[in-house]
């Protein structure tokens, strides 16, 4: 069962105009159900665009995007995913409880069901006591937790997150990372997580997808096996090995770029000792 | 304590200004037809309190009706203009022209269009004056949608009307009230001044002109004070309504 499947996807903004931008090119990516995948790359590499293609917030110029085995547009209409952004994007005129209820409301869930589900989700993110507050009364980290609760409210099989912790301080960020992992494990949700933090990508993910800009493409895919993800995992050799691998992949292939460039997304499938070699060796035992 | 510190300075300043006014008039021997003393105006206000009250209610009702229809029309027009691009391109300049027009100058024409016992002309003038600030502010509010909110609602597959009802209208509410705050005082001014140009003479404006015509200047001033209080009442009522309508803002202040 695959959660997300992209084949030959490209995205061109303003096609045929002078300000034409090739945002993504030749993207092939398959995410099995239950996996946590991070998209990482420098600014402008199209990682957010890729997320928006999966979410059907913007259409692909070429290729196919499938979510839960259906075309992305169908999946969006069926609310097959929940989404969270860098800005919490809470509706300031609704209480925390009613913010979480919103996606359920739009699905036509009954009042009792909405209330029960929102209470459950707020408990999950540890904000049960704040149900009656307005968003502006909460700290940034708490707002972001409400946004995550809202994204999970419809029990989506897929969670899409665009730098959700980007605006938070390091302490809050680490705590929310652990909470997010616990929630994903508990609910069995597949996750696509956009970030530009190497450590965040490695700590959270089963797989880190490294992208490069102009045009945005996948240059490496690095599997991470950390076992239990706790504070000890942040100290483990496997963690540091994976960080090194991601960093190398981000720096680019160095003097011999041809192989990775040519093979694009398939770079990991056929690792070369000189380019993506270190990447695949990062698949270390816990 | 805090309230005292906030309220005390303007109250003290007001009292000082009144005392200074009284002294200037009595010591400077200024003729009452140029500027009557506050004590004389106060005396007239007490004597005429029933007349001021009745005229105030008549003008207040006109202003309220004008405020109500002008606001409803302004919000509806803004919703239509924000929904259809063509409409907004046409309506914004049109509204600007409407606003540039000295609307009070319409009063004599409107007065002649209806019979002399009709309250409609004054209410029309008040409404037209209210329309513009409400329309422009609401339109701005409806257009300023947080991009994150837009994407979220798309991800929920929410339709146009759902989006308007759940996101754009509540998001525009602070802007509506900005317009309404300006409009509430304007509505009173329009309702009072429209009477200067004929029509039914039962409001504050008519009383001011007739008192001035009889050279009863303190009495004219007493009605001016009445108009001032009416405008203040409308403004404060709008502020109160704003607090009730947007509890998420009030909660922050308290």
From TrEMBL, chain A:
CDD domains with a match to the protein in the record: ABC_NrtD_SsuB_transporters
Record flagged with keyword Transcription: no
Domain of life, source organism: Bacteria
Pfam families, per database record: ABC_tran
Residue ranges of every copy of the ABC transporter domain listed in the record: 4-238
InterPro entries: AAA+_ATPase, ABC_transporter-like_ATP-bd, ABC_transporter-like_CS, ABC_transporter_ATP-bind, P-loop_NTPase
Gene Ontology MF annotations: ATP binding; ATP hydrolysis activity
Keyword terms of this UniProt record: ATP-binding, Lipoprotein, Nucleotide-binding, Transport
Region (Disordered): 265-286
Protein's UniProt name: Sulfonate ABC transporter ATP-binding lipoprotein
Organism for this UniProt entry: Actinoplanes auranticolor
UniProtKB/TrEMBL annotation, chain B:
Sorted UniProt keywords: Cell membrane, Membrane, Transmembrane, Transmembrane helix, Transport
Domain ABC transmembrane type-1 residue range list: 56-242
UniProt KW Phosphoprotein keyword: no
Species whose genome carries this gene: Actinoplanes auranticolor
Top-rank taxon: Bacteria
Keyword Lyase: no
Protein name: ABC transporter permease
Pfam families: BPD_transp_1
Family stated for the protein in its record: Belongs to the binding-protein-dependent transport system permease family.
GO biological process: transmembrane transport
GO cellular component: plasma membrane
Subcellular location: Cell membrane
Lipid bilayer topology: Multi-pass membrane protein
Transmembrane segments: 12-35, 55-78, 90-111, 123-142, 183-200, 220-241
């Amino acid at each position: 069962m695959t959660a997300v499947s992209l084949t030959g996807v490209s995205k061109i903004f303003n096609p045929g105009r002078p300000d034409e931008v090739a945002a993504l090119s030749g993207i092939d990516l398959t995410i099995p159900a239950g996996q946590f995948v991070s998209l990482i790359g420098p600014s402008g590499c199209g990682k957010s665009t890729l997320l928006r293609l999966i979410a059907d917030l913007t259409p692909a110029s070429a290729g196919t995007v499938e979510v839960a085995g259906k075309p992305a547009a169908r999946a969006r209409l069926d609310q097959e995913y929940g989404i969270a952004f860098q800005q919490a994007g809470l509706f300031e005129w609704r209480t925390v409880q009613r913010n979480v209820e919103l996606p359920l409301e739009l699905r036509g869930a009954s009042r009792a069901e909405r209330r029960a589900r929102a209470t459950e989700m707020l408990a999950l993110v540890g904000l049960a006591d704040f149900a009656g507050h307005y968003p502006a009364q909460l700290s940034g980290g708490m707002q972001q937790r409400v946004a995550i609760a809202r994204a999970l409210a419809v029990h989506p099989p897929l969670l899409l997150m665009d730098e959700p912790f980007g605006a938070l301080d390091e302490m809050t960020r680490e705590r929310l990372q652990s909470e997010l992992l616990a929630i994903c494990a508990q609910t069995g949700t597949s996750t696509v997580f956009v970030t530009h933090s190497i450590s965040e990508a490695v700590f959270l993910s089963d797989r880190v997808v490294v992208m490069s800009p102009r045009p945005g493409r996948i240059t490496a895919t690095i599997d991470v096996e950390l076992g239990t993800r706790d504070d000890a995992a942040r100290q483990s050799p496997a963690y540091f090995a994976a960080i090194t691998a991601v960093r190398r992949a981000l720096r680019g292939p160095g003097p011999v770029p041809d192989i990775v460039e040519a093979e694009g997304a398939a770079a990991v499938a056929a690792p070369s000792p000189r380019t993506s070699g270190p990447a695949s060796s990062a698949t270390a035992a816990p | 304590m805090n309230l005292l510190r906030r309220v005390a300075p303007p109250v003290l300043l007001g009292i000082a200004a009144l005392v200074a006014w009284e002294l200037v008039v009595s010591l400077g021997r200024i003729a009452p037809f140029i500027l009557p003393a506050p004590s004389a105006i106060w005396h007239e206000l007490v004597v005429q309190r029933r007349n001021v009250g009745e005229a105030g209610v008549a003008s207040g009702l006109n202003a309220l009706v004008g405020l109500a229809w002008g606001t409803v029309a302004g919000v509806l027009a803004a919703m239509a203009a924000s929904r259809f691009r063509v409409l907004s391109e046409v309506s914004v300049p049109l509204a600007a022209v409407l606003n540039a027009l000295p609307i009070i100058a319409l009063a004599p024409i409107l007065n002649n269009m209806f019979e002399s016992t009709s309250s409609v002309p004054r209410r029309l003038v008040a409404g037209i004056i209210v329309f513009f600030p409400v329309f422009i502010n609401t339109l701005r509010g409806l257009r300023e949608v947080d991009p994150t909110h837009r994407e979220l609602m798309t991800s929920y597959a929410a339709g146009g009307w759902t989006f308007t009802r759940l996101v754009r209208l509540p998001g525009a509410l602070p802007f509506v009230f900005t317009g309404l705050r300006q409009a509430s005082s304007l509505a009173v001014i329009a309702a009072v001044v429209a009477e200067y140009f004929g029509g039914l003479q039962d409001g504050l404006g008519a009383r001011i002109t007739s008192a001035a015509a009889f050279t009863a200047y303190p009495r004219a001033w007493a009605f001016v004070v009445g108009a001032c209080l009416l405008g203040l009442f409308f403004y404060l009522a709008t502020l109160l309504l704003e607090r009730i309508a947007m509890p998420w803002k009030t909660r922050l202040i308290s």
